[in-house]
Amino acid sequence: MKKIHARTERLLLRDWDSDDLDAYAAIIADPLVMEHIGDGKPRPRSQAEEFIRIVMAHQQSRGWTRFAVEHTASGQLMGFCGVDDKTGQYDFGWRYARSFWGSGFGFEAASAALWVCQNTFSLTHIISKSYPENEGSIRIMQKMGMIQIGEGTDFGRPLVIYGFASEWPDGLI
């Protein structure tokens, strides 16, 4: 049985399992989904397998991760939302199948995931990164109450970094 971390009106944030592989592999194979991620290229199934292996290990070892997001009406895996720390920071992010874009699911999932990360797992100093042209993701960050606290580069592309003013009063140092 998959552990549910949060339930909203339209979705579940839950643990991953191996049954999610096909749906997640299809999400990261979509060029439009991956346009604003890393090098902007679609990913092979092997990367979906590796991602699910890692997040399942994190579920077991610490409880928090980038949670699987499930559409309650259809039972379909929508993508993920939550935190990873592979860069040494609590990096809050999301990725969704294109069929779920534009309906407010991103903010709904982000709000629930953020609450779980902060209140269940006591995570602080959470950041979120985006390429400046990814207006949808930046809107979600702003609706969550984040402000731009820094800039950087990723794959030679400019990057904006958002966080909560109360946690980053001097910006990202």
Beta strands, count: 8
Fourth-level CATH superfamily: Gcn5-related N-acetyltransferase (GNAT)
Q: What is the overall shape?
A: globular
Q: What is the percent of helical residues? A: 25-40%
User: What would the CATH topology be?
Assistant: Aminopeptidase
What is the N-to-C succession of helices and strands?
EEHHHEEEHEHEE
CATH class bucket: Alpha Beta
- Class per helix and strand makeup: alpha+beta
Regions with little confidence, pLDDT below 50 for 5+ residues: none
Largest sheet: 8 strands, mixed
Strand content: 25-35%
Which CATH architecture?
A: 3-Layer(aba) Sandwich
Q: Write out the strand line-up for the largest beta sheet, numbering strands in chain order.
A: 1-2-3-4-5-6-8-7
Number of domains: 1
Which quaternary structure do these chains form? single chain
* Mean model confidence by pLDDT: 95
> Which radius of gyration do the C-alpha atoms yield?
15 Å
Through-space gap between termini: 42 Å
Q: Total number of helical segments?
A: 5
The gist of it:
The protein is of the alpha+beta class. 31% of the residues lie in helices and 28% in strands. It has a single domain (4-163), classed as Aminopeptidase (3-Layer(aba) Sandwich).
